[in-house]
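Reading is simple: each integer encodes one residue's backbone shape. The lines below illustrate:
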Amino acid sequence: MRKINNIETFVLKDSLEKNFFFSQWGYDERSICIVKVSCDDGTYGWGEGYGPAEIVESGINFFKKFLIGENPINNEVIWHKMYRKSLDFARRGVLVASISAIDIALWDIKGKLLGLSVGELLGGVHRENIVPYATGMYFTDKDNPTKDYKIEAEKYLKEGFKAIKMKVGLGINKDLNNIKELRNIVGPNIKLMIDSNHAYSYSEALELCRKIEPYDISWFEEPISPEFYEQYSDLRMKSRIPIAGGECEYLRFGFNQIIKNKSVDIIQPDICACGGLTEAKRISTLASSNGIDIIPHTWGSSIGLHVALHFISNLESIPGRMNESDFYLEYDQTENALRENLTSPKIKMKNGTILVPKSPGLGLEVNEEALNIYTKKTKGIKNLEELIKQN
């Protein structure tokens, strides 16, 4: 019987050439914790946790001592062991992200051992092409946050994106003007979504919803704080714009609260935080049982994007029909070398869609040289420009 014999963590960091910000705070670097789980037969898998990288790393190291010697095929048994070890003090938060990272790596291992892609392991691939939407329109200038809207939007349209999500949360009047401007730029045939990152009170969110109804907004993401399930429900009932949320929620139990309270039209679990693929599969069953759409939140490295592609490929189309509607992947477009340079093969969009990986496991390999660069573990290494040229 093969056994897990090593669990390694890597905190990756890359400083940004240009800072950007949203309704809560700004970014001057990208940072993520990834994990490599290895077996005694040489098989290994990669995972990623969403949240403060050093804290995710500490969580993984906490679980590590309980998992050495386990059979990686028994991923649900291992998941439950981690859950039980942390239940008393971590039903939500970063330790669940640590569980997620390890769980994802186990799915990668299992797929490699069985010669199946993660999408196949989840139960089968319903669709081979996923439609990405561009998450962008972050604020780069506090005094004039709309100055690059036209340039950025035209770039997305040229690349073939059919949907764009913009950041809001600067205040009702500023948001209204920015939404109106962006809709005029992209025209009526591009899906447009907004995300305030829970910047508003209930009354403010409702006022904004009513004022932007003429601009055909496909969903309003995190309009208010994620603690207020009942307010979400009330807002959803009074708004003609679909309400989305859930990136700050954890485990099936948290999403059950969202669903029982009828808080959102679209749930958005982050697979790298909500409990991994094992728990995301359970959450998707809750969603389909209640007729709620599910569009995962993604933010991190290319590992997380691969995870989301496999997960979305397996989602049921309810109701089923001959010509199904598009299934969307969040595809962040801010500066992120960890997304672009860490793994191969590269994720590529063609004709407005991304092909679901078919290779065993997640279908990726981590570039060890890039790993060394972003973990700052080696000196005198070839510079990043040379690395990019090689790829």
Summary: The first helix runs from residue 53 to 67.
